Amino acid sequence: MIKLNDPTLLRQAALVGGQWIEPDDTGLAVTNPATGGVIGHVPNLGTDETRSAIAAAQTAQKAWTKRTAKDRAQVLRRWFDLMMDHQDDLGAILTAEQGKPLTEAKGEIAYGASFIEWFAEEARRAYGDVTPGHAPDKRIITIKQPIGVVAAITPWNFPNAMITRKAGPAFAAGCAMVLKPASQTPFSAIALAVLGERAGLPAGLFSVITGSARVIGAEMTGNPTVQKLTFTGSTEIGAMLYAQCAPTIKKLGLELGGNAPFIVFNDADLDAAVEGAVIAKFRNNGQTCVCANRIYVQAGVYDAFAEKLASKVATLPTGNGFDEGIVFGPLIDQPAVDKVAEHVSDATSKGATVTLGGKAHALGGTFYEPTILTGVTADMAVATEETFGPVAPLFKFDTEAEVVAAANDTEFGLASYFYSRDLARVWRVSEALEYGMVGINTGLISTAEAPFGGVKMSGLGREGSRYGLDDFMELKYLCMGGIDAAEEA
Ligand SMILES: NC(=O)C1=CN([C@@H]2O[C@H](COP(=O)(O)OP(=O)(O)OC[C@H]3O[C@@H](n4cnc5c(N)ncnc54)[C@H](OP(=O)(O)O)[C@@H]3O)[C@@H](O)[C@H]2O)C=CC1
Ligand SMILES: O=C(O)[C@H](O)CS(=O)(=O)O
């Protein structure tokens, strides 16, 4: 059992149109990836409950949008305050169902809450404009209005922040949201809904539906009342949902897979580059879409970088996320371990060397040793597939042109990183990299103030920043005519 200051936050129920529904004997078990133990159960809901939630959202949204932006902002601010007041409990629930170390989980709570805080402020800045008319009697006015009912589907790797990164702008804009969280991590979403009620989110505005992704998703994508679908997860599922939304022409927000390059030039600050690589590669045990999936090191510093990185990572302990000082928790499930093992096996079979780790951890279960590979080449699976685990493949390169071409040689375009202290090179490489985001001399770029998102197969739209609200609003053009000149006195 998870020790909580407020046990009511761990609620074994889904929230459908303002009504809490508890699981019956068809309920779905949620397990702790570190121990395999059952944390609790959630109801196995489907089409009817999803349809009911969407109808309730439509009703609640009409009232919500009539409230002032300041009023909506105050509710969001209260939600932010409650999240931070309960940071320890929300972090414990997250570690229990996702596995990341408690310190990192609490960090995610603060990161997730920052999106609610940011959009509480942005809510009051949905500015329109007045444009000089195209005729003497015409005036042109542009206003922004909420899209309406939003459906959201989120992944297990950031079970709090991937929800608030959508709910914050949606509610700030005046929308309602029906959410299907990942089946492996529903309790973080449910705890957010419990606190949302306490903050004053009206009944029906925010529903959390648990059950079959395929069935719930089919209703979300097919129901014409849903005006926007916002999805974070794999490119494969994202593309399928994109197609499912086509018949009802929904707006889409897609935050999909990545294959981030991490480039270290000869002129880099090597210690800073090692520190950045540890964060960019191993945050959340490598289970993030913006993780450094390929590490390119210029020939002049390759051996020194590899040695420094291995020495640093070797000091970082693996274990149960609730234990003091743990840096690497378990992977989410056995398929995740199998994929990591397959990538390591493929690389070594094609000539790569295991400098550190390279096998399942002695702890067993879904624990895997943090791994560093050297002598990695472009024909290996780690070069083209997202590993989504603690494997750092080091590629050697000679010239800037060669590494930029290699970095761009992927269908993905989410995050990228490079270390250089040459100003001209910083500009050249920043402009040449085909990605939505570029980290320059840093391995950690995600923050509510910045536009998060990708290009190519990594998705559509941006979350966070001053642009995030617009993804949940529609522009309306008012053409005011008949404004004739006053009669001469
Ligand atoms: N761009 C970004 O910000 C992020 C991208 N990702 C990417 O997601 C992948 C790993 O996350 P993972 O959760 O496994 O991704 P998935 O795409 O498998 O799952 C994401 C969500 O989609 C749901 N889902 C799965 N199948 C369907 C379906 N047929 N219809 C509707 N919903 C469905 C899942 O539900 P269920 O849990 O029930 O299967 C889950 O809630 C990686 O590729 C990673 O790069 C992950 C996080 C962030
Ligand atoms: O799920 C993810 O990978 C997140 O988008 C990563 S981040 O926002 O925490 O960088």
From TrEMBL:
Keywords: Oxidoreductase. It is an enzyme of class 1 (oxidoreductase). GO terms for biological process: gamma-aminobutyric acid catabolic process. Pfam families: Aldedh (PF00171). Residues 20-477 form the Aldehyde dehydrogenase domain. GO terms for cellular component: cytosol. PROSITE patterns: ALDEHYDE_DEHYDR_CYS, ALDEHYDE_DEHYDR_GLU. InterPro entries: Ald_DH/histidinol_DH (IPR016161), Ald_DH_C (IPR016163), Ald_DH_CS_CYS (IPR016160), Ald_DH_CS_GLU (IPR029510), Ald_DH_N (IPR016162), Aldehyde_DH_dom (IPR015590), Aldehyde_DH_Superfamily (IPR050740), Succ_semiAld_DH (IPR010102). GO terms for molecular function: glutarate-semialdehyde dehydrogenase (NADP+) activity; succinate-semialdehyde dehydrogenase (NAD+) activity. The active site is at E255. The keyword Oxidoreductase applies. Signal peptide: none annotated. Belongs to the aldehyde dehydrogenase family. This is Glutarate-semialdehyde dehydrogenase DavD.
